[in-house]
Structure formats: structure tokens, C-alpha cells
Fold VWFA domain-containing protein.
Amino acid sequence: MYQSGDGATIFDIEIDASEASSRAVDPDSAIPFPDKDLLFNASFRRSGADLLLTAPETTAVILGFFKDERRLGITTPGGASLTGAAVEALAGPDAPAKYAQASGAAMASPPIGRVEKASGSVTVLRNGVSTELRLGDTVAKGDVVQTGPNSALTIKFNDGTVFSLSSSARMVLNDLVYAADSNANSALLTLVQGVIGFVAGRIAKTGDLKIDTPVATMAIRGTAVQTEITAASGATRFSLLTEPDGSVGSIVLLDKNNPSHVIVSMSDARVATLLTPVSGSVPQITQITKTDDDIRGESDFVRDLFQFVSVEPRQRRGSSDPYDTPTIPVNLPQDVDPIDPSEFVLPPLPLQRTVSRDVILPPLIAAPAPTQGAAIEDGPVAQLSALAAFDPSVAGTLARAVVPASLPPGVTYHDGERSFRLDPAHPAYQHLGVGETETVIVGYTLIFNNGTAVPASATWIVDGRNDAPVAGNDRIGAIEETGQTIVNVLTNDRDIDGDAIRVARWTNPIEGSVNLDAKGNLVFDPGDDFQALSAGEVATVAFAYTISDSNGGTDTATVTLQVRGTGMFSSPRQVSSDTDILGFNRQSVSLSVDAPTATAAATADLELMIGLGPVLQPQMNILYLIDISGSTSDGFVGTPVGDLNSDGRANTVLDAEIASLIALTEQVRSLGFSSADVTVTVIPFNGSADPADSTEPHQSSVNAATFNLGQAGDGAIATYLRGLDAGGETNFASALRAANDRLQGLDQGGEANFLYFLSDGRGQGLIDVEVAILNDRYGAKITALGVGEGSDLSQLDEIDNTGGASLLTSPGQIDVSVLGSPLPSGTITDIDVIVNGRDNGEIGPEDLVLTSRGLVLNAPVDGLRRFAGDQNAVSATVTFASGEVLATEQIIAGALPRSTDAIL
């Protein structure tokens, strides 16, 4: 429990200012105060060096708060605060509080403003004295003005700034310095609690106007603002107001502890900003889109507030000249002079009954009929004479009009003309709709020179006209790339007449589409236009829409939509191919290109696959006709070959024949022919062939044998040859007949047939018929060889059709050139990939990789056009050494939406 210097008892909260300051890192930091509800609701009072805070349910004391000249601020646990200067003004001096009328309170400082409207319980705390405020009272630097429940207060300051306090609001008038010809004007005001709105005056335009709140400091540059401070926490809602002419200003909210730091800038009248205090940090920022009810309520607030705002002189509608007679301000009945602040200390004159202070009104007489006129909203100025239809004074002398201190909105009195003018374009009449009227009445008094006072009135009926609705631009983010989205465009659109507005027409964006649903909502349908977007990619589209109030008024705004991609785009693949048969070897070849059908990137991967079919080699039948007659047991005149048949006789003609055919077999195999394509048939002959006559009485005859080419075949051929023995006669006709018989079974049509005829040349028999069959029926190429230097070539020449028989003196002399060589496979010499007419890099046959599927080349291509509607012509060509070409072409479509953002 705490016993204060004035006897008050404080039970709840006790704080030592010195101790709190010593615990803080910065000794000049604010004093922590534990009760946020009490700080902004309390009555502040000074008790000696202590500060007392009292509320119906809670009380607190801050010991030593006033012990020196330093005034620390006070902050709640959440971070809302009051400055030391504001607290000092709220507490007042250390003196007993008194209640007085405004006329009874001494003003220590010059007046800085005047009360323009007061209703309910409205007070000012000045020098510790709580004083009731009334219409016309003045306020001064250091005053604390406060409204009670169901009360309201409007103050107009010397520079034209107008403040309006709703019920249960409190504000400190810290300072205001203003001179009309100065650019060093300044003002600092502290808003403590409640709903408080204001219209900035000249200081905001020529000097430095700052408004302090529990959470931030407002820097103002000429605008209308409404604030709402929650008494329980200090959280403050800031709202820019749309002025009657449709303009919207801007404010900057600064950090109270670091004025160089901007918390947030505001310039949109459709969105309010809520700052919620956060301990040890900048306030939490919440953006709140205003509802239609919010906007209508603010419109009423603005209309009331702007009744007290001085209107700048302007031109008549349809004219280039300003009014040619001075307009007498509504609060002065005499000629226009600069405002003298000292006049504000005088008691105010009652509204609607004020007369000039130097006029004594004589008794009133019956009023004449009221002067009536009409005006059209937003139409020309309507003028009414202030003089009655008759004049009871001396003829030719005009009466003098005494007008109220406050005239209706838009009404001015022109003394030189003795007339009133109503401007129906004033904001107060903009709410009138079609068929709606408002009656404007001015009551005044006519003073004639005979002393007669006549009450009079001027009346206008303002006929409403339709005001076009106002459509606000919208920006909506996070639209899904699939599925329809309702676009709520009407939330920030308004109609000052209160007419219902609807969407009348709209355009379509470049991608996606917009339609109207059964409830009148615009619906955005992305369709398939954005499916190529991947995660992290955004496309921005816009469309215009027009609203109508159904009374002929329309307005158009723009809606900007951001469509966000999901996942990773992939496209189906396509394969194009070309096939051909190479002319030189009848080899089948193919080219296929695998590529995406569409792309959202500038690059894509192509796969080229080249197929080379097998080369069909000619089928070959090679026949060895070897002479094994008795004469082949004679000695061989040539390169010694040894005893190859193991008959005990070396270097015989038969040995040379055996050695030569073994060597021939090896040569044929070395040419590279496949064993499947070549058969070798060995036909031994003597007096007969296939079978040949046996050379010994007890031996069986020797049959011809057919072998496949290859290592196994070569070995079998050699073994067969080494088993031959010499003996018997020599019959060439029998040998050739045996060859024809064998070819009849071997030649299936289309094969190439070759005969190697080896003998010592001493044969018999008619050969012409058999040779003709070999040549004509089988197209055989016959190479006849005389084995040994002494061989007789005469009959062999008749058999040979390759240019004549030749002597064989060495096993390696047999010519195999007549056999030719296997047909080679096609050889790739060049590969080209062309994208949109441009060769796509350096690729060649060396880049091909042999796989089980064929030759494969992965070819990345770049320079692709990737936006929807684009097409990319991609072609691939493969050139063979023979000059033949495979070529294929395909189209890769662009898929990326053209509205995609930030694509480099």
C-alpha cells in the first residue's frame, strides 16, 4: 500500500522510476508499465514528485516520476507507449483539480485553435484544471482535450487543420507554431485513445506536422486520416479517407524509438492498417480491406468533418473567371480580414443566431415570405438575394443583412451583392441520388435604416443527380494454374449515392478467360493456358471490367491476376523417322529422332538413333576339281611341298595340288566372307568323278564332299585332301560332268559359282558340252591350273574362262581376285541437326554410341522459341559415304504462357 503526498491511497501497482531507469540498458528508455488496460484508460495526476494513475478498478503510482526535469515515456509489456511530454500534459501541475467554465480558466499560452462543434461531455485539462468546452472556446498549447461517452468535439486550428474526436477520446495538444508567411511551421499532437479523425491544414503543406500515437508517429503531407486507438492495448487502426473531391493523400508511419525508420507507408484509401504493439520490436502490421459498410461510414465521417474545412477559392462551372466578389467567411459577419488569434478568447456566439458585435437589433417584425430557389447536384451555383420583396425603409436604401456565424455546407454570403450563393457541387450533396432532394435553409435578419429588423430566410431545394460509381483497381495473387477462381472485384468499388453496383461488361486477358456466374461474380478460368508453368514460375495477366449503377453511371478498372505454377512441366515425346536401302550394298538403314512435342524452356534433349541393317552378301559355291590320276604321282616341278598325303612319296604333283588347295582355302576365308554365305565342294577325279575310281583293288571309290567355310571347315577340307591317293586314268569330261551335277543341287538361283580345276594337263574326254553348261546355265567362273612346270595347258585353256590357264609352280599362286570381296556396310560421314534454320552446334559421327538398339546420339538443342503459339522446326540429316542421305523433320511447339514473368 502506498500513501501519496496528497493523502490518496494506491493499492495495486507501485513502480520506482529511478529503479526502473537504472535496470534499463538505456537510462533514457521508457518506464515499463505492467497494466496495458490502465495506461490508456487512467486519469493522470501529479502528487509531488510522484505520478498517480487511477481508474475505477485499478490504481498505480510511479514514484519519483517528476523528481527532476527529465520525463521518461511509459510503455506497456506489448510495446505501446506514451511519451514523457504527453504524460506530463495529462497529469497537469501539482495543484488541486478544479472544474470551471471556459470563461473562467486562465490561458497561459496564446490560442492555437477554436472549438467548432461540441456535444455531450467535452472538457479540456489546462494547467491542472478540468474545464468544460463549449462552441467557440479556444484551445492552447499543452491542453488535453477529452470527450465523454456519447459526446463529440471538433477543433479547428490556426493553420486550418481540423480534428474531430468521437466519444471517449483523448488528445494532447503538445505544440503548434504557425505563421501564414513562414515555412518553419510545426505541430505535434498526441492521440491517446478513441476514434479521432483529422484533415491536415497548411502546416502539413509548408512545415512539419507530426501526430504521435501509442504505436507510431504519423508524418503528414496534407490528407484526411481517421485513427482508432484501442484503450485496452494501444493497438491503433490507421485509415486514409477519401476527400469530397475524390482525392486521397498519403501518410508515413515512423518508429517511435527510431524516427528514421519507416514502419509502413499508406496511400490506398481502400485498405486500413492496424499496428499492434510488439514488445521489443516494431509493431505487427495487419492490412485490412475495408468493407462497403466501412466506406459508407467513413463517407459520413468525411462529410461531417469537411463542414469545417476552409474551401479554396475556385472557378464557377463553365467559366474561366473566379467569383468577382469576396466571399465572407461563415464565422465573421464583417469584411474579410486576416484572423486575429486573440479574438478566440471571446465567448462564442450561438450557432444560427450570431450577429455582429457592434449591431443592436431592434424589435423584429413579421417575416416576409422566404426567398426560394433550386439547385442541381453538381450543377451551376444557385444565387438568391438576401433582400425581401418589399422595403419599409426609405426608397432606394438597401437593407443590411446579418447572417449566421455558420452557414450550411456550400453556402456563402456576398455582402456587396446582398446575396447568398449555394454551390451544389459541395461534397455534402454528393450523396443525393436520382429522385432525391435536400432542402437547404439559411435564416438571417434584415436591418433597415429605420431600425426595423426583419427575420428572413433563403431556401434551396437541391435536386440529386446520379453520380457515377467509382471502380478501384484490383491485384490478386496466388491464382492456381488449374481450376476456376472467383474474382471479388466489387469489394473496393463504391457508389457515393448508395446505388447497388454490378459488373456490366469485361474484357478477356491474353491467356485464360473470364465469365460471369449466376450470382454476378466474375470468374477467372485458366483453362489449359498455364499448365506449362512449373513451381516458382508466375504469369501475370490483366483484364478490364466496367461497373454500372443501373442509372447510367459507369466506371472501369483493371484487375491484375498472378497465376502461380506447380510441379514440373513435362511434355509427351514424339518420334519421327526415315528409312532407305543403300544402293551399293542393298543394306537397309534408318534414322529416328525422339523429341518433346512441346517445350517451356529454350533447350530440349533430342535422341537420334541410326539403324544399320545386315549387308546381304552373295551366296558363293566354290568347287575344287583335283586330279588324282596315276600321273599325279609323278614328281612336281616347282616349290617343294613335302609328302602331304603320307604315301611315302614327297613333292608329287598330287602333293602340290593338296598344298595349293589348302592355301586357297585359307585365302578365301581371309577375304572375310561369312561361313553361311560360302560352300566349298571338293571333287577328286581320275578316270571318273564323284565317285572317282579307287586307286587300289581293295579301296572304295572316292566321293566328292561339300564343306562350310570357317576354321572347322578349313580343317575338314585339309584332312579330306590329305587323304587322297593317286591312281587311275584322267577323264576331264567326267570331272566337269560331276561339277554340273553338284551345282544342280547347290545353285538355288542367284548364287555365284566358281571352279578351280587343278591337273597336270594330260586328260581325255569330250568337254565342250559340260563347259557350255557350266558357262551358260550356272555362270561359273572357271580357273584352270596346270600343276608343275611340265604341265600341258592346251586342254586346260579350253576349260578356263578367266583369260587362259596358268601354270602352278607354288601353292600360293592361285588367284582369288575372281571371288571379289564381301560388300561393306554403309559408312556415316556427317550428321546435322538444324533448329529453326540454324545449325545446332558441332556434332558428328564420332559422337555416336553403339548400343543394342543401334547407333545412338543424345543431342541437346538450344535457341527454342518457348512461348505458346511459337513453333520450332527441328530437322536431322545423316549422310553416308555413298552420298545417300536420311532426313527427318518435326515441330516442337512452345508451351510457356506469354504472360510469364521475368523470363530472360
User: Anything to note?
Assistant: The two ends are 73 Å apart (CA to CA). Residues 653-670 form the longest helix (18 residues).
